[in-house]
C-alpha cells in the first residue's frame, strides 16, 4: 500500500482538528483510498496543546528542517495563519519538493503567483480547499465539477462571524456592538475583529474563488470592499418591510468583464442565501450550462475545516503529478478584463427635516443623475421633527448614485444620508 508522510505546521484549532481526523480515520482512509497517511512531524512550540491532542512528543519540534530534510514527508499542512512565518515556511517546504496544503486565505490570496511559481519549479503541489468556506468543498466543485461551464457569477456568504452578527441583529433586534461582543465571547470573532467585520476575510476568499471560477487571477486590489460595522438595526427592519434580508456577500460576476465586490447586501427573502443563518456559510454559483448551484455548510471550526484539509491531503497523496491549472501561468493582471465600475440597485435612507417640498427636491436630485426610483417609504417625524425617507432605486451605476448623494447632502432640509445599502436580485 502507498505510504505517505505528512507534517503539520501548528496544531491550533484547525491543525488539531486535522490531526484528529488523520489519526482517527487512518484505517478508514486506508480501506477507502488505498493510502496509508501518517502524521510524521508536528511543528509546534505549545507542548501542552500537543499533549492534549495525544501527539507523541518524539515527533514534535520547532525546527522546520526536521520536515524539509525528511524524505518520507511528502505533504505539509500549514495552519499558522497570517503572512509570516507561514509564507517563508511554505516556500521552504515547496523548495524541498513537498506538496503544501493550506487554509491560510490571507497569505494565499496575497502570494499565490509567487507560491505557484516556486511549486512549479520544484515539482510540488499547492492545495487550498480549506482556504475558502471551511468544510464546504467549493474549490473542488469549481475546479473539478464545473469544467463544462463558463461560471458567470458567484454570490457567497463566506464569513461566519458577520453572518452570525447580522442574523442576530435581524432576528433579535440586538445592536451591532452587542452582537460583536457576543461573537467574541463565543469564539466566532477575534479580539481584533477587523478582518471579519470590515470584509477583509471575505475579500481574500472572493479573490481565490473568483480567480478559480473565471480562470484569471482576480487580485485583491480589483475587489471593492465594505464591512458591516455601520449597519443599524433600523435599516434591517426597514429592509424587512420591503421583503429583504441583509447579508454580507462576496459577489463576483463574469459576463463581458469581471467585477468583484464585498459589501452588505439586501437580498429578497426568497433568495436561497437569505435563509442561511448564524455562523453558517453558503456559496451560490451560476454556470452557463448547469444553471444555479448552492453549496452550504460550516465555514469554520476544527473538524469542518480539518475535513477540507484532509480531502486535499488525500488528493495530493493520490496524485503522481501535482495538480496544475493551465491558466495559473498567466501572471499578468490585465486591467481591460475588469469592469471600471459596477451597477446595482440601492436602498438609501435619508434623514430630512419635516418641511414641505423636501421629498420633491430629493427626488429631483436623483432624477438629475438618472437614478430611477422604484419605491419610496416616508416614515413619521420623530420628536425633533426629523424623519427618515427610504428610497429603493432601479439599476444604476455606482458613480451616478454617489454623485446624486453628494448633491442631496447639499439640499437645504436634508440632515444626512444615513444609510446606503446595495440590493441584489
Ligand atoms: N473568521 C472566519 C469566519 C473563519 O468568520 O468565517 C474562516 O475563515
Key structural traits:
6-stranded parallel sheet; 425 residues; 27% strand; Dihydrodipicolinate Reductase, domain 2; 3 domains; Alpha-Beta Plaits; binds L-homoserine; elongated; alpha/beta
A few lines on this structure:
This protein has 425 residues and is of the alpha/beta class. It has helices at residues 13-24, 26-33, 47-52, 65-68, 86-95, 105-121, 138-144, 160-172, 176-185, 194-197, 200-214, 233-241, 302-318, 358-368, 398-409, and strands at 2-9, 35-43, 60-61, 73-78, 99-102, 126-127, 151-157, 223-225, 244-254, 258-268, 280-287, 291-298, 343-353, 373-378, 386-393, 396-397, 414-423. The site of L-homoserine has 8 residues, from helix 8.
What does this protein structure show overall?
- With about 425 residues, the protein is of the alpha/beta class.
- The chain is built from 15 helices and 17 strands.
- The chain folds into three domains: about 160 residues, Rossmann fold, CATH 3.40.50; about 160 residues, 2-Layer Sandwich (Dihydrodipicolinate Reductase, domain 2); about 80 residues, ACT domain (Alpha-Beta Plaits), CATH 3.30.70.260.
- The strands form two sheets. Strands 7, 8, 9, 10, 11, 12, 13, 14, 15, 16 and 17 form an eleven-stranded mixed β-sheet that branches.
- The longest helix has 17 residues.
- The site of L-homoserine (HSE) has 8 residues, from helix 8.
Amino acid at each position: 500500500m502507498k505510504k505517505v508522510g505528512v507534517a503539520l505546521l501548528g496544531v491550533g484549532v484547525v491543525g488539531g482538528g486535522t490531526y484528529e481526523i488523520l489519526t482517527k480515520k487512518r484505517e478508514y482512509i486506508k480501506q477507502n483510498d488505498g493510502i496509508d497517511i501518517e502524521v510524521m512531524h508536528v511543528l509546534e512550540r505549545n507542548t501542552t496543546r500537543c499533549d492534549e491532542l495525544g501527539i507523541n512528543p518524539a515527533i514534535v519540534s520547532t525546527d522546520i528542517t526536521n520536515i524539509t530534510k525528511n524524505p518520507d514527508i511528502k505533504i505539509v499542512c500549514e495552519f499558522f495563519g497570517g503572512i509570516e512565518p507561514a509564507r517563508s515556511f511554505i516556500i521552504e517546504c515547496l523548495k524541498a519538493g513537498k506538496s503544501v496544503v493550506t487554509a491560510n486565505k490571507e497569505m494565499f490570496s496575497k502570494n499565490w503567483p509567487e507560491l505557484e511559481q516556486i511549486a512549479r519549479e520544484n515539482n510540488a503541489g499547492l492545495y487550498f480547499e480549506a482556504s475558502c468556506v471551511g468544510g464546504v468543498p467549493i474549490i473542488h466543485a469549481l475546479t473539478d465539477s464545473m469544467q463544462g461551464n463558463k461560471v458567470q457569477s458567484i454570490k457567497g456568504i463566506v464569513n461566519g462571524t458577520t453572518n452570525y452578527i447580522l442574523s442576530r441583529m435581524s432576528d433579535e433586534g440586538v445592536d451591532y456592538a452587542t452582537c460583536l461582543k457576543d461573537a467574541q465571547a463565543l469564539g466566532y470573532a477575534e479580539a481584533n475583529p477587523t478582518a471579519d467585520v470590515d470584509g477583509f476575510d471575505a475579500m481574500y476568499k472572493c479573490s481565490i474563488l473568483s480567480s478559480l471560477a473565471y480562470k484569471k487571477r482576480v487580485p485583491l486590489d480589483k475587489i471593492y470592499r465594505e464591512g458591516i460595522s455601520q449597519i443599524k438595526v433600523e435599516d434591517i427592519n426597514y429592509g424587512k418591510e420591503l421583503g429583504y434580508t441583509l447579508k454580507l456577500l462576496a459577489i463576483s460576476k463574469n459576463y463581458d468583464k469581471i467585477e468583484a465586490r464585498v459589501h452588505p447586501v439586501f437580498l429578497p427573502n426568497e433568495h436561497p442565501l437569505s435563509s442561511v443563518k448564524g455562523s453558517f456559510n453558503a456559496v451560490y454559483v451560476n454556470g452557463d450550462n448547469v444553471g444555479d448551484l448552492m453549496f452550504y455548510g460550516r465555514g469554520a471550526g476544527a473538524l469542518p475545516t480539518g475535513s477540507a484539509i484532509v480531502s486535499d491531503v488525500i488528493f495530493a497523496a493520490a496524485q503522481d503529478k501535482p495538480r496544475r491549472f493551465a491558466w495559473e501561468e498567466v501572471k499578468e493582471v490585465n486591467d481591460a478584463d475588469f469592469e471600471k465600475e459596477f451597477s446595482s440597485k440601492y436602498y438609501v435612507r435619508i434623514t430630512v427635516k419635516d418641511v414641505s417640498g423636501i421629498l420633491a427636491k430629493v427626488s429631483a436630485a436623483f432624477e438629475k443623475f438618472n437614478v430611477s426610483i422604484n419605491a419610496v417609504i416616508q416614515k413619521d417625524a420623530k420628536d425633533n421633527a426629523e424623519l427618515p425617507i427610504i428610497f429603493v432605486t432601479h439599476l444604476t451605476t455606482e458613480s451616478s448614485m454617489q454623485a446624486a448623494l453628494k448633491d442631496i447632502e447639499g439640499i437645504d432640509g436634508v440632515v444626512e444620508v444615513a444609510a446606503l445599502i446595495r440590493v441584489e436580485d
